[in-house]
Write a structure and sequence with these properties.
By secondary structure, this protein is an alpha+beta fold. Helix content is about 35%, strand content about 20%. The strands form five sheets. Strands 1-2-10 form a three-stranded parallel β-sheet, with helices on one face.
Length: about 290
């Protein structure tokens, strides 16, 4: 006999429909499955990956978007985050010696070479820049110091709870990330154009203005990956992005998730502002 005070709880696993089998959809599915939800992903194409994919043709790998992965090496805290979804030891990463080569049209370096090399090793990059522009020593050393400083900041590998919802005594631990946020806020004001304006050497000046195909962009887009390239923490996966995403797909399916391919979503079914289901292009309603 059950006592009158004993409570019976009937637990019904909630169903979550996810639109798209890209990195975001697959990752969301994994964490929802691990948190006790039933999920199903509806993907309009016949394969996973979305915009994060790659393919092989004639011995070459064609990449649609992934150029480097923050956390490819265990020295970076994001390695731990990726390891929750991916068997990182099964993927071989390469850290290129040169981040990019830029053809400079109007000038050349001290050897007459019209190609600017953006090396990923900071010591090598500094020597290369100083050899070509000793007159810009202060600006060059300032740029290298900026990237060295980025390496010294503690980057949060993950946030288990939403900081705004935490009690005050748990919020205190996030104060240690304040210097990083202030530093990044200041750094984003420097662009490739503003840095080029500080330089006197015509070869370097033109090269930095051409960093983003001649557009003005925050210099941090280059300095941040370079800082962690130097620590072997932002490599490129051999074989391209498709192998990386395949790892997440295997994790998701192994957790009991389901993917329906060639199932394009038409709209989300709403009831007084609440999502109640999904309507596919075929007319099928998914509660």
């Amino acid at each position: 006999m059950k006592s009158k005070t004993e409570k019976w709880i009937i637990f019904t696993r909630m169903k979550v429909n996810i639109i798209g089998a890209g990195v975001a959809g697959l990752s969301a599915g994994c964490y929802l499955q691990m948190s006790g939800f039933d999920t199903e992903i509806f993907e309009r194409h016949n394969t996973f990956g979305g915009l994060c994919t790659s393919w092989q043709r004639g011995g070459y790998t064609f990449e649609s978007g992934l150029q480097w992965l923050l956390g490819s090496g265990s020295s970076n805290p994001f390695y731990q985050l990726w390891s929750e979804l991916i068997n990182m030891e099964s993927i071989r990463f390469v850290t290129h010696e040169v981040r990019m080569d830029i053809e400079v049209k109007d000038t050349s370096d001290i050897n007459g070479d019209k190609v600017f090399h953006l090396y990923t090793n900071l010591e090598r990059l500094e020597k290369y820049l100083l050899a070509n522009a000793p007159e810009d020593k202060a600006a060059i050393q300032g740029l290298i110091r900026l990237m060295r400083r980025m390496q010294n900041f503690e980057i949060p590998p993950m946030i288990k709870s939403v900081p705004q919802l935490l009690p005050w005594y748990k919020k205190i631990r996030y104060i240690r990330y304040l210097p990083l946020l202030l530093f990044l806020n200041r750094s984003k004001r420097e662009t490739n154009f503003t840095f080029a304006d500080k330089l006197r050497n015509p070869f370097l000046k033109e090269a930095f203005r051409l960093l983003f195909d001649g557009d003005e962009m925050p210099l941090m887009i280059i300095t941040l990956p370079l800082a962690f390239n130097d620590l072997k923490g932002t490599g490129y996966p051999i074989g391209g992005a498709v192998g990386l995403v395949a790892n997440i797909e295997r994790k998701y399916l192994g957790l009991g998730g389901k993917i329906r391919y060639l199932a394009e979503a038409d709209k989300i079914i709403l009831d007084h502002g609440h999502a109640k289901g999904l309507l596919l292009k075929t007319g099928e309603s998914i509660p």
